[in-house]
Design a protein that fits this description.
- There is one protein chain.
- This protein has about 400 residues and is an alpha/beta fold.
- Helix 5 links the parallel strand 4 and strand 5.
- Helix 2 runs parallel beside helix 3 and helix 8 packs parallel to helix 9.
- The C terminus is likely disordered.
- Bound molecules: pyridoxal-5'-phosphate.
- Pyridoxal-5'-phosphate binds next to helix 10.
């Protein structure tokens, strides 16, 4: 944890914990580095569902080409916070009301999930136009991945054979402009594997567009850039990915690629900071019971991993009895919920952990608070802190746009 964050945590009272602490300068630096690694003809959208915290969205707004939203709720939220940012609206199961809102909001792109959805969209257009991408589930093998959204039977997008009916509909309706295909097939790939997948996707897209006499100028290859919770320092290699994309694009002078990562953008900027309430030994195994738990940070339960953490020692012990502690042995960090599933990290070695010490869980900036079951057991919610020690450049109303 950076000194500025540690300093902030040091000033929190016990009852301010658990706390989500967001490192906004760290996020700014990270998104700048991502953008700098990518060629100009790659448009970087942030998938808001990873973390739609207002300060995070506003911090990102000046550095991304826009936001990918997956519900009417996210659409309204992003529009309020970043009114001028281009928005792509995707996701399965869009309601008629959501589609109408998307058209009213003038979304920059609509990612169509099915022929039915396209039909519904055309009934709502009136005299408006819409720019669509057709989401395709290609039969490619994404390899070893954390989550597969495609490459096998799935509720996401369309099988390639189903695209032709959509193309017919689009050809007969001048209000619908086809921008290209959209593919979000897998999550958890490292840079080389992600590049190999992009190559496969583009090879298919070029054959497909050639056969159908479509002028291919845009492909959205989705998100899913890998985040390794077991090795927090092994971040997705954006320079390697960017160099690979530059090679890929140099052979395709008219093509613009879009990517829409979520997790790999914000995972590292968030910390879930809490405190040890009790230490116990059960049948010879050590357990540390923490304030809060997986109802605030569901990520380790959802992904079945150990959330990485740092111990922030607190030497003050005001009680007259011996301070419970565990030394040089594996400990399981659990929360306050009355379920054996409330585990944040399992049998992880610590040199020392005592009641009253603080524990800061790293990589809690994506799919963390916002995917958690907050109401279970009615414990208090965490407090939220945005540490920003750098001058704020831009107020969230300027957006990086595609160079014309
Ligand atoms: C969730 C999602 C993303 C972002 O995925 P990450 O793994 O967070 O990068 C991008 N595109 C679509 C369509 C998604 O559903």
């Amino acid at each position: 944890m950076r000194a500025a964050l540690l300093d902030h945590v040091g000033r929190l009272a016990d009852d301010d914990l658990p706390a989500y602490v967001y490192d906004l300068p760290g996020l700014r630096e990270h998104v700048r580095a991502i953008r700098a690694a990518l060629p100009d003809r790659v448009e970087l959208l942030y998938a808001a569902k990873a973390n739609s915290d207002p300060a995070i969205l506003q911090t990102l707004a000046g550095h991304v080409s826009g936001f990918e939203v997956a519900s009417g709720g996210e659409l309204g939220h992003v529009r309020r916070l970043a009114p001028d940012a281009p928005v792509a609206f995707g996701g399965p199961g869009k309601t008629q009301t959501e589609l109408a809102c998307a058209l009213d909001a003038g979304v920059e792109r609509l990612h169509v999930e099915s022929e039915h959805e396209l039909c519904l969209l055309t009934t709502l257009l009136g005299d408006r136009t819409v720019d669509v991408l057709l989401r395709v589930n290609l039969p490619v093998e994404p390899g070893q991945v954390a989550l597969a959204m495609g490459g096998r039977s799935s509720p996401f997008g369309m099988d390639p054979a189903q695209l032709d009916n959509c193309l017919e509909l689009i050809a007969s309706d001048p209000r619908v402009r086809l921008r290209g295909p959209h593919l979000h097939l897998a999550s958890g790939l490292q840079a080389q594997a992600q590049l190999a997948l992009v190559e496969k996707v583009l090879t298919w897209a070029e054959d497909w567009s050639h056969d159908r006499r479509i002028d291919l100028t845009e492909v959205n290859v989705g998100g899913g850039m890998g985040v390794d919770y077991a090795q927090p320092h092994r971040t997705f290699d954006w320079p390697v990915f960017g160099a690979g994309l530059r090679r890929i694009l140099s052979r395709r002078p008219r093509l613009t690629l879009r990517i829409e990562p979520g997790r790999s953008v914000t995972a590292y900027c968030g910390w879930y900071v809490t405190q040890v309430l009790d230490i116990k030994f059960s049948r010879g195994q050590a357990f540390a019971v923490l304030r809060g738990g997986t109802h605030h940070l569901r990520t380790p339960a959802a992904k079945q991993h150990d959330q990485p953490f740092e111990v922030i020692a607190d030497d003050v012990w005001p009680r007259p009895w011996a301070r419970p502690e565990v030394r040089d042995e594996p400990v399981t960090l659990v929360g306050q919920l009355c379920t054996p599933k409330d585990v944040l990290a399992r049998r992880v070695m610590v040199s020392r952990l005592r009641v009253g010490d603080r524990v800061a869980f790293a990589m809690a900036g994506a799919y963390a608070w916002n995917i958690s079951h907050h109401a279970f057991l009615m414990h208090p919610h965490p407090t939220f802190h945005h540490v920003d020690d750098a001058p704020v450049s831009g107020t969230g109303d300027t957006y990086a746009r595609r160079p014309s």
